[in-house]
Amino acid sequence: MEHRNSTKVTEFVLLGLSQTQGVQLFLLGLFLLFYSLILPANVLIILTINGDPHLGSPMYFFLASLAFLDICYCSVTPPRMLADFFSCRKAISYGACMAQLFFLHFLGAAEMFLLIAMAFDRYMAICKPLHYATVVNRGVCWALVVASWIGGLIHSIIQFVFIAPLPFCGPNKLDNFFCDIPQVIKLACTDTYILEFIIFCTSGLATCICFLLLLISYGVLLVRLRASSPNGKSKVASTCVTHIMIVFVMFGPAIYLYCRPFRSFPMDKVVAVFHTVVFPLMNPMIYTLRNREILSAMKRLLGRSGLWKGK
Predict the structure, then answer these.
(1) How far apart are CA 173 and CA 111, in angstroms?
(2) Which residues on neighbouring strands pair with residue 14, listed in sequence order?
(3) Distances in Å between the alpha carbon of 77 and those of 33, 71, 106, 124, 272?
(4) Within 10 Å of residue 201's Cβ, how many Cβ atoms?
(5) For residue 229, is pLDDT > 70?
(6) Where are the bilayer-spanning segments (predicted)?
(7) Are 297 and 48 in contact (CB under 8 A)?
């Protein structure tokens, strides 16, 4: 293992989204407005589902878990990004960079596994309706959510074990607004060809496989619905379509970022913003806006608190 020099990197310099002050101020205002609207909406989704007995089905339990997980995921990189808008030199310590990378993949993988759990829930509800209440009970729901978190933790540990021992001896500039594997690995002062292939298999290829399996499973469910009784078919089909939208929103940017060679491309920062900032908070919103039961429950909750005076 050959080092470029003997200097050990203790911090990384983040180049951010833009070097122009005017653009930075515009992005700061835009992201603050986005968070001030969407983040409370996600909290409202959780409070509504947990506080309304009409939303006690496993489907809504998983949706509340998804909203909570997305809030956690959006607490990893955006706060640092917003703070860096006020800083002339956007530096992050080596330890903070590794922590950011670890939690980013931990929570991202946990969400991926949670989407698989949600697909299993829809399969049981549509294909095994007589056994649904028995099989997908509250204990099983909790087990699936915990398994999602554990799966995300294992995935992140695997990535971290490969990245943490890498020697960094300069340069130390990351062309991004957060620490992630594709940018960090390029700064290592050693040959990373084999390591890049391993991470591609454990992260990128795994993401692609899960994405395809989810699309196939929901495709089968939609075909199954066409051959079933028309009673309630429209509502169930709408739910499946919503899940497919969330799968595309979640996996699309991830596939773009991790299922390719670790080189810089013009759209990297734009896709990274949507992947880490915008889309995670939008996932539960996509579901909520297409679900009348949740909207009605929200109105009842806000009505009891005096914040809604509609009928």
Answers:
(1) 29
(2) 174
(3) 17, 11, 13, 36, 10
(4) 10
(5) no
(6) 25-47, 59-78, 98-120, 140-164, 197-224, 236-258, 270-289
(7) yes
Quote the DSSP letter at residue 173: E
- Tokens found for residue 137: 């009970």
Instruction: Write the CB contacts of 182 (distance below 8 Å, at least 6 apart in sequence).
Output: 257, 258, 262, 268
Give the pLDDT confidence of 89-146 residue by residue, as tens digits.
888 999 999 999 999 999 999 999 999 999 999 888 888 888 888 899 999 999 999 9
Determine how many CB atoms are found less than 10 A away from the CB of residue 174.
22
Beta bridge partners of 92: 12
User: Phi and psi dihedrals of 173, rounded to 5?
Assistant: -95, 125
| Cα–Cα distance measured from residue 125 to residue 295, given in angstroms and rounded to the nearest whole number | 22
> Which residues contact residue 309 at a Cβ distance below 8 angstroms, ignoring those fewer than 6 apart?
303
Residue 285 near residue 42 (C-beta atoms within 8 A): yes
The pTM (predicted TM-score) of the whole model is 0.88
Q: How far apart, in whole angstroms, are the C-alpha atoms of residue 137 and residue 43? A: 24
> Hey, is 91 helix, strand or coil?
strand
